[in-house]
């Protein structure tokens, strides 16, 4: 995609994530007065005056800090700056110019990119004297804003879109396939995204909880466009100590809501867990397509039937998503990652599959002939006809007599008959039963 890219940088706690959320119109990045809360590059789509662009939030920069997480944050921010068309340098307008601001300003000047200085946290109409210190950066006139109150954001966005190169595509993109990676911590979700992209887009360490936000990453493959959403792993409730961790759980659920396809990543060395079951249930209940990826398969000792036994256990524990295909992968070695990408396209096609009313009713009539609808105390329901009313996920409205007699086992039977003809691999099927005349 030749989409214009805006990168937000600055030292910790100057309000970068608050401004990011304001620009994209959603609470995607976690905002908390704790240094290092935003650790990765977080991508989302912004829009202003009918022009669409990609916004990247980055972790707070402390150039002299060599701690492993902080050094990773610095590397991520530098990579984001390299890909950006416009750099939004956020500073604390109340605190004034700091030595860290000067260091960051020097780095940005050397990048040769268009840099806009946003003096944040100015919540009153009166401009404080500290603002004028930022002219020393030599990056042009600072724009006074309040990310929290929304003051000055329009002027800032005007400046941003005017700074885009003329060859950038700013039209709305309807072809994106939105894929979220879900599962408990340390199962290899971030490593999988990095393997797919062929670069270190997401910080990968062996420190639990490294990924705290839901991170949007854009990717093109075989003429298809994707947004991969990496998420913080869901922990057991008793393991959630910080408010930030609680927010991460909310972000994971929100990431599922924003996605079309959920890839449930399971650690092959640990097997299925309660957390896996819960997040898979949430995705299923919300009508999302699901693929089960068994990661770290290279670490498992195998014999002839190992994968069959593993798959049998998965089907037993996750019987409610029997439609979800299973693929055994290794994010570390790249084993079958290409097959996973192919499977995403197959599932996406099924998620958007529509059956004509005539064909659907042929399937229903044949199913009824083989197995009559249930009856109760001499009353029997009757199926008149059905029609598909929507996709993503596929939803069918069936008109019947005595809808209350439609037992869930017969609904499952109808679903199986439809799947026998059309598959609907990876996607749930929804039914609504109405009495004639409703």
Provide a descriptive summary of the structure in words.
The chain is α/β, with parallel strands linked by helices and 438 residues long. Helix 10 crosses helix 11. It is elongated, with a radius of gyration of 25 Å. The longest helix is centred in the first third of the chain and has 16 residues, at 68-83. 32% of the residues lie in helices and 23% in strands. It has 3 domains: 5-162, Rossmann fold, CATH 3.40.50.300; 176-351, Rossmann fold; 357-435, K homology (KH) domain (GMP Synthetase, Chain A, domain 3). Helix 7 (274-285) links the parallel strand 10 and strand 11. The protein has a 6-stranded mixed beta sheet, sandwiched between helices. Strands 8-9-7-10-11-12 form a 6-stranded mixed beta sheet, sandwiched between helices. Strands 15-16-17 form a 3-stranded mixed beta sheet. The model is unreliable at 28-40, 203-214 and 239-248 (pLDDT under 50). It has 11 helices and 17 strands.
Helical stretch tally? 11
Q: Estimate the strand proportion.
A: 15-25%
Strand elements, count: 17
Strand order of the largest sheet: 2-3-1-4-5-6
For the termini, the CA-CA separation is 46 Å
Radius of gyration: 25 Å
How would a textbook summarize the main sheet?
A: 6 strands, mixed
Query: Into how many domains do the coordinates divide?
Result: 3
Strand-and-helix sequence, N→C?
Answer: EHEEHEHEEHEHEEHEHEHEHHEEEEHE
Task: Catalogue the unreliable spans.
Answer: 28-40, 203-214, 239-248
CATH architecture classification of the largest domain: 3-Layer(aba) Sandwich
- Morphology: elongated
Kindly identify the CATH topology of the largest domain: Rossmann fold
Give the C-level CATH assignment of the largest domain: Alpha Beta
Helix share, percent: 25-40%
Overall pLDDT: 82
GO biological process, one term: ribosome biogenesis
Pfam families: KH_dom-like, MMR_HSR1
Organism: Tissierella pigra
Binding site for GTP 2: 183-190, 230-234, 295-298
């Amino acid at each position: 995609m030749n989409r214009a890219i805006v990168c937000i940088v600055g030292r910790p706690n100057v309000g970068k994530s608050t401004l990011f959320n304001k620009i994209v119109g959603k609470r995607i990045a976690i905002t908390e007065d704790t240094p290092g809360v935003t650790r990765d590059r977080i991508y989302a789509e912004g829009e202003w005056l009918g022009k669409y662009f990609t916004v990247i939030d980055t972790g707070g920069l402390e150039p002299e800090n060599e701690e492993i997480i902080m050094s990773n944050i610095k590397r991520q921010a530098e990579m984001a700056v390299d890909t950006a068309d416009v750099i939004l340098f956020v500073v604390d307008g109340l605190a004034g110019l700091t030595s860290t601001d000067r260091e960051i300003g020097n780095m940005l000047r050397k990048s040769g990119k268009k840099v806009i200085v946003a003096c944040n946290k100015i919540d009153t109409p009166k401009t404080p004297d500290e603002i004028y210190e930022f002219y020393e950066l030599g990056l042009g006139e600072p724009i006074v804003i309040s990310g929290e109150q929304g003051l000055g954001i329009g002027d800032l966005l005007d400046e941003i879109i005017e700074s885009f190169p003329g060859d950038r595509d700013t039209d709305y993109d309807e072809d994106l396939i939105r894929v979220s990676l879900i599962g408990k911590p340390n199962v290899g979700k971030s490593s999988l995204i990095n393997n797919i992209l062929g670069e270190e887009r997401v910080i990968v360490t062996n420190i639990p909880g490294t990924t705290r936000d839901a991170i949007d990453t854009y990717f093109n493959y075989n003429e298809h466009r994707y947004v991969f959403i990496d998420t913080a792993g869901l922990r057991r409730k008793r393991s959630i100590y910080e408010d930030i961790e609680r927010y991460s759980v909310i972000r994971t659920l929100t990431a599922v809501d924003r996605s079309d396809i959920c890839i449930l990543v399971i650690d092959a060395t640990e097997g299925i867990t309660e957390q896996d079951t819960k997040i898979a249930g949430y995705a299923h209940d919300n009508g999302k397509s699901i693929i089960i990826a068994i990661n770290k398969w290279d670490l498992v000792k195998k014999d002839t039937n190992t994968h069959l036994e593993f798959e049998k256990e998965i089907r037993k524990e996750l019987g409610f998503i029997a439609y979800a295909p299973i693929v055994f992968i290794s994010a570390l070695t790249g084993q079958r990652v290409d097959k996973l990408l192919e499977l995403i396209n197959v599932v996406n096609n099924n998620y958007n599959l529509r059956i004509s009313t005539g064909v659907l009713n042929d399937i229903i009539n044949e199913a009824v002939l083989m197995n009559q609808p249930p009856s109760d105390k001499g009353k029997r329901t009757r199926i008149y006809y059905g029609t598909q009313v929507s996709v993503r996920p596929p939803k069918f409205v069936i008109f019947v007599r005595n809808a209350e007699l439609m037992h869930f086992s017969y609904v499952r039977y109808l679903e199986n008959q439809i799947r026998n003809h059309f598959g609907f691999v990876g996607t749930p099927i929804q039914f609504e039963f109405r009495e004639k005349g409703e």
